[in-house]
């Protein structure tokens, strides 16, 4: 961030802190209600601001009013082009309350369109009265926390019980392989602690626009619709995300993004099997999960915990992928099993969970991930490996769902 930007950031924070939260009698920043602050330079040269506004107890006129005040105050600052405020609640109750239709319209930012971008010149009052009722709004038939995402056929969590095993790499390349097989694919990167999707897809400098219905439009790259917490908030900034806030933010990214129409939405989840992951597995409308692991014993103990977690939440596990299975010397072609051999396969057998396949350590996988062009885009052995995995996954979707998998169109 340049000096000018850090000056502007401070100005915005100062302005936000002048808005007093009635519960704490302190400003929004002093009350720690503002998190994940981000500042990007827009096309006009003016700044685009994004932040998370934490509210207590779910939708309420107070939450709406604080949000409107915050948006207006920020837009009134010189040099600001747009502001996106994501409201999150650390109460478990908000989605369970069935608001009246009138109230739904007023509270649409929380019930459906929590993330919306305000532009300079917007009339706050007029916008509010015209705010759309959420598409597919609060459903009476399904529990709200499992509400299916309209237009998304299958939602697959890619999980790892341990960080750094290549979960995001596998997610990105699998998504591309599925798209190459003719499917419409999206990725939701929910790893609030280190979102890597923007880097892996070369979209780090982009931020999503808001559609007419109030939903955020995913950023399309390499034929994949992508959304990441990294587009909306500065996750590099030191801040403490409380578990329920994370879950609430993730839930909004699922429901408040214009995903339709997708055959598969892959969800890159934060590593681990703690409260956040459990809550996600319980509340997200997941079709199934895939677990990524490296072969060593210490990682495999975590895999068992991961599989158990999904079983507990009645989410079918499509299988386990072993990443970094070996390294092949480019000259001699000798394989070194750096992290041990066949561990994930044996664990899959012991847990009676399908073993989907293994991926070697390949320099180009890391390099292309860092360069924003996942390795599966390029013809060769890496692309072939991911295609095999994708074919297995598409085929195996049939079993847990008890219905036909998405149609594959070969060109
Ligand atoms: N098969 C592979 N060959 C070479 N490098 C790989 C491979 N898989 C992953 N990597 C590299 O390992 C690093 C970690 O991968 P990645 O970010 O995908 O892991 P992760 O499990 O998503 O991590 P975290 O959980 O911490 O977000 C990255 O630099 C990535 O490029």
TrEMBL record:
Highest taxon of the lineage: Bacteria
Record key words, sorted: ATP-binding, Hydrolase, Iron, Iron-sulfur, Metal-binding, Nucleotide-binding
InterPro entries documented for this protein: FSCA_dom_sf, MIP18-like, Mrp/NBP35_ATP-bd, NUBPL-like, P-loop_NTPase, YlxH/NBP35
Task performed by this protein: Binds and transfers iron-sulfur (Fe-S) clusters to target apoproteins. Can hydrolyze ATP.
Subunit and interaction comment: Homodimer.
UniProt family annotation: Belongs to the Mrp/NBP35 ATP-binding proteins family.
UniProt-recorded name of the protein: Iron-sulfur cluster carrier protein
Species, as recorded: Hirschia litorea
